[in-house]
Write a structure and sequence with these properties.
Blueprint: H1 2-16, E1 28-31, H2 33-38, H3 45-79, H4 85-103, H5 105-139, E2 143-146, H6 162-169, H7 176-186
Parallel strand pairs: 1-2
Helix pairs in contact: 3-4, 3-5, 5-6
Length: 201
């Protein structure tokens, strides 16, 4: 079943990107967000910022949570027998929550790091989305596919590579071989990239 589906997807992609049909009215582009993000100067600083967040914030939060749990657990063991029922119930609940957080710390840390990454990368994504939206409207694309969904057996037209179009619109530096291939395909020139202002965030 998977083989049949793969063949159907490959055939469909081939038909979609075929320019031989005069009746074809659908204009299809393909886009790779990660490739576009990697072109921003300074984007690699996100890794450094994430590492600082991990060490300066999450590691300190872990130490505090361990200390807080030990303190509360010690008080509870000492005073639970004389606590009113409601206070004992609340203390038990708080201890359970802290214990659960510590036991599942790896998962918690991963979620926090993913959230921080999204926060750091979002200003870049906004600029990409705005540029892509403008290109889709200007060039009248009716469908944009993720680059990774295209079969490796199909070579779509370079001029429908919206990652390159976004880079050109945002004046992001492109590798020379891509610039040369684009010039050859478009019969034009590629304007040299200007320094890109860092997104606020």
């Amino acid at each position: 079943m998977k083989k049949i589906l793969f063949v159907c997807v490959a055939i469909a992609a081939g038909v979609l990107f075929s320019n031989n049909s005069s009746a074809q009215t659908t204009k299809i582009g393909y886009f790779d967000e990660q490739a576009a993000l990697s072109l921003f100067p300074g984007i690699n600083k996100i890794d450094t910022l994430l590492n600082s967040y991990r060490l300066d914030s999450l590691q300190e939060e872990y130490k505090y949570t361990v200390s807080d749990f030990q303190r509360r657990d010690s008080i509870f063991k000492k005073d639970s027998a004389t606590m009113p029922a409601k206070a004992r119930e609340l203390a038990t609940k708080e201890l359970f929550q802290l214990r659960y957080k510590l036991v599942n710390w790896q998962q918690y840390q991963q979620q926090m790091e993913e959230g921080k990454y999204e926060q750091l990368v979002n200003p870049y994504r906004i600029r990409i989305a705005e540029a892509l939206s403008g290109i889709v409207a200007e060039q009248k694309y009716t469908l944009v596919l993720k680059a990774e969904t295209i079969s490796p057996y199909v070579t779509p037209p370079l001029l429908d590579n919206l990652t390159i179009r976004v880079a050109l619109k945002l004046k992001l530096p492109l590798p020379k071989e891509i610039e040369d291939a684009w010039k050859a395909a478009s019969g034009g020139t590629v304007a040299p990239a200007k320094p890109v202002a860092k997104p606020k965030g």
